[in-house]
Amino acid sequence: MKLGAFSISLAVKDLAASRAFYEKLGFVALGDSHSEQYCMLKNGDAVIGLFQGLFEGNIITFNPGWTQNATPADPFDDVRDIAAALQKHGIAFATSIDTDKPEGPNHFVIADPDGNVILVDQHR
Predict the structure, then answer these.
(1) DSSP 8-state symbol, 66
(2) pLDDT tens per residue across span 20-45
(3) What are φ and ψ of residue 104, in 5° steps?
(4) How many structural domains comprise the chain?
């Protein structure tokens, strides 16, 4: 199973202060993916998303269909196929896949045994 690009999504209180901190660690903005509420930063293969006011707590994120360089991956495992495989393994879903969307963007949320939230979010 190929989960796609990996990043950590951090809920931050002050986007500008957090961005400045991570830039001091060598992270740079990934493309134009920043706004008043979020910013994606990269250092080597490490990707961090900073999100202000969009969710509570930190989230482990996988993006099927994307590489660590934010470019399309082909071929890739569709999020619906990943969800079906996890269901067969008895994984409980906090947010299920939207079955009204048979192709294209979709997502689901699961949690590991320690309660760490995992978002599998396909954008294409």
Answers:
(1) B
(2) 999 999 999 986 656 778 999 999 99
(3) 80, -160
(4) 1
CATH number of the domain where residue 70 is located: 3.10.180.10
Domain span including residue 67: 5-122
- Percent of the chain with pLDDT strictly greater than 70: 96
DSSP letter at 44? T
What does the pLDDT look like over 40-66, one tens digit per residue?
999 999 999 999 999 999 999 999 999
Output the CA–CA distances (angstroms, integers) from residue 10 to 46, 56, 73, 81, 87, in the order listed.
13, 9, 24, 27, 27
Residues with Cβ < 8 Å from 23, sequence gap 6 or more? 41
| Antiparallel, parallel or unpaired: β 93-95 and 38-43 | unpaired
Maximum separation of any 2 CA atoms in the chain, in Å = 44
- Do the Cβ atoms of 86 and 110 come closer than 8 Å? yes
